[in-house]
Amino acid sequence: MEQQEKDWLIELLDITEKELTPKQAKIVQAAIEVFSEKGFAAASTNEIAKRAGVAEGTIFRHYKTKKDLLISIVLPVIYKFAVPFLAEKFLNEIFQKENLDTMDGLLRKLIKNRYEFVKNNVPLIKILLQEIAYHSEIQETFKQVFVEKVMPRYKMAVEHFRKTENLAAFPAETMLRLTISTILGFLVTRFIILPDYTWDDEKEIEYTIQFIRNGLKGND
Q1: Residues 6+ away with beta carbon under 8 Å from 38
Q2: Domain check: are 112 and 189 in the same one?
Q3: Are residues 106 and 211 located together in one domain of the fold?
Q4: Are 73 and 132 in contact (CB under 8 A)?
Q5: pLDDT tens digit string along 103-116?
Q6: What string of DSSP letters covers 11-25?
Q7: Which of 19, 29, 80, 166 has CA 20 to 30 A from 122's CA?
Q8: For the residues 188-210, what does the mean pLDDT come to?
């Protein structure tokens, strides 16, 4: 197994906090590869089983349906992607460390943190992006994580920076939408749409920060 493939599985195990049997780990690994390459609809449990080196019936001993296997992979990824705003350590750094005591500092830490996650887990992100439009379970989890968990913490950060910076009078929800869509656009373009382009990643991160910051700046 190549190192990048190991990273996917390690991330998934870390997300789910479940101990998988060796055969189940092989099934999950194979499913990630096949779903990423072909999409859920075109993937077959027979192909997943062959790639995992197990009998097809073994899959159904662990997962009732192919969709159950997909959901077991995708839903935890949503939580993992949102981890920075769910982690107390991350929020404490926003409010306490000098280098994060600006909106730029928050954006820089957030983008670099998620850059590394996406870089190490491209197949998982591809599956999430491919399937979110077709499965209500994925949509509901995405909405729950960002509305109930990320939004309140982002509002805290916005109110914190309103006291010291000239931010636009946009609702916090609008600021989060603009921030997430820009960061996702950068990461998806960088790692999925144009992964082989000669990007200068450090410059692109700074350009992204500048773009978001200027968009959120209030009128002088």
Answers
A1: none
A2: yes
A3: yes
A4: no
A5: 888 888 889 888 98
A6: HHHHHH-----HHHH
A7: 19
A8: 96
